[in-house]
Amino acid sequence: MNTKKTELELGVDFIGGQGSLTPEEEKALNDFFKQRKFTTTKTLLKSLSKTAKLSKVNT
Q1: pLDDT the model gives residue 57
Q2: Which of 24, 34, 35, 51 lies in the 20 to 30 Å Cα band around 42?
Q3: What distance, in Å, lies between the first and last C-alpha atoms of the chain?
Q4: What is the pLDDT along the chain (59 residues), one digit of tens a residue?
Q5: Spatial separation of the C-alpha atoms in residues 36 and 21, rounded to whole Å
Q6: Which candidate, 41, 33, 39, places its Cα nearest to that of 49?
Q7: What is the value of pTM for the model shown?
């Protein structure tokens, strides 16, 4: 059996940049990650709430 490795070539030359972020870019990234964390936490709490309700019903 002959298995062949395939490699995925990305269409970018650089990831990131040479300089530091501007204050606007830092704020945008900060806001993005805060929103992402909030959404993830909200989803997790919602699923835990459903689990708790199901366990109360099943007992």
Answers
A1: 62
A2: 24
A3: 54
A4: 567 777 777 666 666 667 788 899 889 999 999 998 888 888 888 888 877 776 666 65
A5: 20
A6: 41
A7: 0.47
d(CA 33, CA 40): 10
- The region, left, alpha or beta by phi > 0 then psi within -120 to 50, assigned to residue 26 is alpha
Single-letter residue type at 43: T
CA separation for the pair 22, 18 (Å, rounded): 12
* Contact indicator for 24, 16 with CB cutoff of 8 Å: no
Q: For residue 24, what pLDDT is reported?
A: 93
